[in-house]
Amino acid sequence: MHRPDRNKWSNLALLLAFSLLAFTAQQTVVADAPDILIADFEGPDYGHWQVTGEAFGNEPAHGTLPNQMPVTGYLGKGLVNSYLRGDQSQGTLTSPDFKILRSNINFLIGGGYHPNETCINLLIDGKVVRTATGKSRTPQDTERLTWATWNVAEFNRRNAQIQIVDKHSGGWGHINIDQIVQSDHEPAIPTAQDEKRELLTQAMASMQANLSRAEADPTRPIYHFHAPANWMNDPNGPLFHHGYYHMFYQFNPYGDNWGNMHWGHARSRDLVHWEQLPIALWPSRMQGEEHIYSGCSLITPTGKPMIIYTSIGHPLPEQWAALSDDDMIDWQKLPANPLLTETLHGKTKVYDWRDPFYFEDKGHHYLVAGGNLNEARGGEAIVNLYEAGNDELTQWKYLGVLFKHPDASIKNIECPNFFKLGNRWVLAISPYGPVQYFIGDFDATTHQFTATRHGTMDFSDAYYAPNCLLDQQGRRVMWGWVKGFKEGHGWNGCLTVPHILTLSKEGELHQEPAPELQTLRGESFHKTEMPLQAGKPFQSELKGDTLEILAEIEPGTAAASGLKLRQSDDGRNAVTIAYDGNQLDVAGTKLPFKLHDNEKTLQLHILLDKSVMEVFINHRECVTKVIYPEAADLGVSLFANGGQARVKSLDIWRIKSIW
Fold it and tell me: What is the pTM of this model?
């Protein structure tokens, strides 16, 4: 019988044991060691860090500092931000000693690109062995923090310090730092989806923080659409889809002044009451976007909801697109953005190229966009025309100039709307002044719009950048941005009520408040056939600051007649609307106005809503005003001066809130 060689088996056993030990040791090396936090700046102060100078203050910043662009990309609530007293201040912030025990030091960094002047340093024995600076150099750059890493394996077990430095006082003369960590791994680079989640979460939180202040303002309108809080301006891409009216709008979630343009979003079943939805579009900082400017929404021929908008932050404006499912709530930007660039124009240079608007005609799909051809020197303000080359609307060609403004004083055209009304075409434009419209004909063969009638959409400087939709009833519904409110109230800006646009038999453009708004009417007052004499005004029994008024007045022999709203008890103060037969004066905005030969009465439809007043005059003219009477001034009266007039009918309703 053969006997095993004991020495052989002993050697094998030893070999196996050593192999297991080696494997275990190898596993110990490969296993992830936990990260070591150096600083996250979430405390009430800098702890044992040493501060010199004025740039860093005595405690971490909590986001954006006064007069600074929005700071994004940091974690938690606190960070190092040396913009404490603007770019002029300087200083240093130095950590206590720590031992290097991992192969990498990872950190979030932002701010100015000034090597050795706005930077973070790793010090060993007091000497700089690693350094990093911010990336921002130009006004188009951002305050976003991004991950950076140093490989420090060669300094294993050495004592070290972190020093954050601001020694630059010019543009971008500051540094932002957060979340300094020792790790055996480099930081994961965030994806576009990560950025979207982070930026939208931060934007929504900022808006929520201002809600209570905005809602507490007694001058805030209650039946005009507005953002939940903060700044809003242009209505963007209104669209009726699957039983909802969708409204997007220019929105700054970070304050009640202009900046940081996003697209807010709301929807309504009845055109009256609105449901606020999550922010739809955000600036993709990783792709160089600074602002999401105005644009349009549409349903592609393939049935997909799409937004096309002007993307700002690149060397030249670009038109980008985003897609959504049918609910139109969660939007994804096209990976192939930009959708349109200035290369489409060939040798034609278009300045201030922005604000695309979509329309269809005879099976063709078009965009118009505003701009000018001579650096806004006047005389070359234009609307350009583009046609889609596929059903996905991802391929476009330039067809040329659809329209050039005939007035040489007009320098640029913004927010063009081009749509069919009856058998005519209407072009509405915003030319840095009162919004204008042109009525005429569109030749799809020559790609030209020939205007035969011209008018003013609204005569005040409080109305701008309207946008419109075609609804399920075939109505053209338009909203404008109401501007000119006081700052510092937690909100700024609203929209007009929805206007229904029609053409009269004579070809005039008519505007009326959407009849759905009548569902908001409450307590009422009615009177007919009242004479008005000089010095004897008629005082309404119904008073208030949220009213709808329909007044029909025969001017008679009066030199002037009209209404006084928000009138004080002593009659000295009021918001006055007066007509003298040739001119209508709406709270200081004067417009030429004469009754047509077939008209006998001045017909005023007035919407009074806290600090907003809209006046529709004989269905064909409009004036929007922002007003700030005293809170106690609530009276309503009708008057005639220098003769007699007659009130054919007067109806007043108290109006309920849409929220």
Answer: 0.79
